[in-house]
Amino acid sequence: MTTLEHRARPLDVSAAEQDYAAALERDAAALRRIVDLTQRVDSNHPLFLEVAERLDTLSERLENPVDTVTETVRNPGWRHDPVSGVENAIALPLVLEFEDDRTVRAEFEFGLPYQGPNAFVHGGISAMVLDHVLSAAVPPGDVPVVTAQLTIRYHRPVPLFVPVTMVARETDRDGRKVWATGELAVDGKVAVSAEGLFIEKKLKSAQ
């Protein structure tokens, strides 16, 4: 049996709050498209001037809203994290599949917003995504896990616009300490691998 992370997880909120969450998800998807398209269109195209003016207007409206949200931290966090958050415009967003053998898998492509060297993914982005997937491979307990140590090995560059497969699994556990390994592969060849140590720990908000 395979379960999908986040997309299939229901929100335990009121109907009005569900509508608000759906609107945030649509906004993030639209912004994600804009970020991607501005990387692709000829920078000398006259449409860029019009787009810039419209985005400035939207930014000013958001900076001076009629009703201001007072919370500085949104919950639940999984909807707006920078890797799989559907409410986050900089997220892929990554969708994880949880296999019966407790392996976590994801298949996706990196676009231009994640470029480092020309035509290849920035190494820091690969590390961030692997950290996210490895931590997801740790079965949840009474408290969440936080990353204590992450070792990344780069075997070969990860190209943009090609199918990427990422797999992770838990390898050991000792009390509150949990270890996991994973890799990012292209065409069946490992491009980036990782080993992580995670600690079960309660987090306190900075609010």
Distance between the termini: 40 Å
Mean pLDDT reading: 84
* CATH superfamily heading of the domain at 96-200: Hotdog Thioesterase
What CATH architecture label of the domain at 96-200 applies? Roll
What is the SS-derived class?
A: alpha+beta
Q: How many distinct beta strands?
A: 7
Task: Specify the biggest β-sheet.
Answer: 7 strands, antiparallel
Shape: globular
Strand order of the largest sheet: 1-2-3-5-6-7-4
Radius of gyration: 19 Å
Which CATH class of the domain at 96-200 is shown? Answer: Alpha Beta
Helix content percent band: 25-40%
* Count of helical stretches: 3
CATH topology of the domain at 96-200: Thiol Ester Dehydrase, Chain A
**Can you write the helix and strand succession as a string?**
EHHEEHEEEE
β-strand percent reads 25-35%
Low-pLDDT residue intervals, each spanning 5 or more residues = none
Report what the structure shows.
GO terms for molecular function: hydrolase activity. Pfam families: 4HBT. It is globular, with a radius of gyration of 19 Å. It has a seven-stranded antiparallel β-sheet with strand order 1-2-3-5-6-7-4, covered by helices on one side. β6 and β7 form a beta hairpin. The chain has a domain of about 100 residues: Hotdog Thioesterase (Thiol Ester Dehydrase, Chain A). By secondary structure, the chain is α+β, with helices and mostly antiparallel strands. The N and C termini lie far apart (about 40 Å). Helices cover about 30% and strands about 25% of the residues.
Please give a handful of descriptors for the protein shown.
seven-stranded antiparallel beta sheet; 3 helices; 28% helix; alpha+beta; Thiol Ester Dehydrase, Chain A; 7 strands; 207 residues
